[in-house]
Amino acid sequence: MSIAKHHAEWLSLLEISGPFLNLNTLTRVFPQGLDVIEPARAGELRAAYEEWGVEAARDPRFHRQWVLYILQTLLGWDDSVLAEGQAIPEPIHYVAVEHGGERIRPTFILHARRQPNVVRALVSVYSPNVALEKTLPRGLWTASPAARMLALLHATGVQVGLVTNGEQWMLVSASKTGMAGFISWYADLWNEERVTLRAFISLLEARRFFGVADEDTLEAMLTQSADDAQEVTDQLGMQVRHAVEILVRSLDRCDQDTGRALLDGVSDATLYEAALTVMMRLVFLLSAEERGLFLLGDALYDQNYAISMLRAQLHEAADRTGEEVLERRSDAWSRLLAAFRLVYFGSNHQDLKLPAYGGSLFDPERFPFLEGRSTGTPPAIDNRTVLHLLDALQILQARGEARRLSFRALDIEQIGHVYEGLLDHEARRAAEIILAFDGAKNQQPEIPWRLWKRSATW
Predict the structure, then answer these.
(1) 163, 215, 329, 395: most buried by Cβ count inside 10 Å?
(2) SS (H, E, C) 428-443
(3) Residue 1: pLDDT above 70?
(4) For residues 38 and 20, is the Cβ–Cβ distance under 8 A?
């Protein structure tokens, strides 16, 4: 198994919301894979977990012992770097001013040796019956433990927080960009999915904070991943915008071929919105398929509906007959429409069962001209155009190289950022010849030919 696949495997087993560590950072810091856990150590952990499960409900002291076992024995946060109670410096707190002034402090802090004011991580411990992502029923501020930790991190400037009820161990990261990540491990899975235990220890053990180069600490890894994620988001946004432009031009050509019947009565704003909607449908489908939410892997679905498979199929056809031949075929567009309808209406066929998701995003009545209602046949958007749309989404052109983009690694915030960036643009039908210049980001001017010709004459 490749190192990248190894890291992708354990990432898929965690419960992740928001930005976390990307594969580039993980393969750099862990080129040989995660740290190995000795069987005896794992067996000791399992025995301690089982004892906690039996005794914690009867005696709260067992809950504290279990938490300390994880922090001190498993992660190596010994007394020289772990502080609690009165030993926590006074500035490490958050006051919920808008919620009665409730004061929030962590249960423990991880600090530099002999430097209690240099705080590296915060830890908040809750009772076993407290759900970390649900609101608290008591107190002036009813925010969830996860939300409380995030507020505490922002207030103190600490980047890493750990919240636990003994069973769930949630890492909360607060990046300088303002984006927050919530990553959960579950103690009952540490023995069943041993690689998740290896990840927990490799990322949170004391050595990751104090015994590695500065660029290999957990905070540095999170920062680098956040920077890479922003770069990926910006580049993806630019590629999707170019794809929207290609689709708008293609629809306009189809309109011209039908004697302007296809887009009759369709405004420029509606045309742009429709093209944008198509791209967001594709983003949704690619994300859902890679996360195992649809039928990817089923032969019938893969061959006739799967967006993840279509790009490879089109490239294979181009390799056989040449990419120019793709311009004479338009079956790929019909396949996209079929996939969109499948998501909206669902399927009860014995060989293809999928619930109807509905929603305005996939509603075929929202932009009927995409399906050719006015002309009686779908617009003849050629396969080469569809291939370019999929390339824009699935192949990231960054730093002079092309690499496959994993939609499993994209979080909701990144996808939302791409969508919001597209809303800043609009489509207008040109009344004259326009020259478009390709350049760096935000340096792609569009100038009327008459003005360019005049300036060139000067």
Answers:
(1) 163
(2) CCCCCCEEECCCCCCC
(3) no
(4) no
pLDDT, tens digit, 9 for 90 and up, residues 238-250:
888 889 999 999 9
Cβ–Cβ under 8 Å, residues 131 and 139: no
Residue with tokens 């959960």: 184
**Rounded CA gap, 455 and 445, in Å?**
15
Q: At 363, which amino acid appears? A: D
* SS3 label, residue 277: helix
**Three-class SS of 354-418:** ECCCCCCCCCCCCCHHHHCCCCCCCCCCCHHHHHHHHHHHHEEEECCEEEECCCCCCCHHHHHHH
CB 132 within 8 A of CB 126: yes
Average pLDDT over residues 105-114: 94
State pLDDT tens for residues 269-323: 999 999 999 999 998 898 888 777 888 888 899 999 999 889 989 999 988 888 8
Which tokens belong to 28?
A: 């750099």
**Is beta strand 434-436 parallel, antiparallel or unpaired with respect to 446-448?**
antiparallel
* 89 Cβ contact list (under 8 Å, min separation 6): 109, 116, 117, 119
Quick one: tokens of 22? 């990307």
Half-sphere exposure of residue 208: CA atoms within 13 angstroms, side-chain side: 24
Query: Kind of pairing, strands 401-404 and 395-398?
Result: antiparallel
Question: Which pair of structure tokens corresponds to residue 204?
Answer: 């949170």
133: nearest Cα among 72, 80, 182, 66 = 182
Q: Which pTM does this prediction carry?
A: 0.62
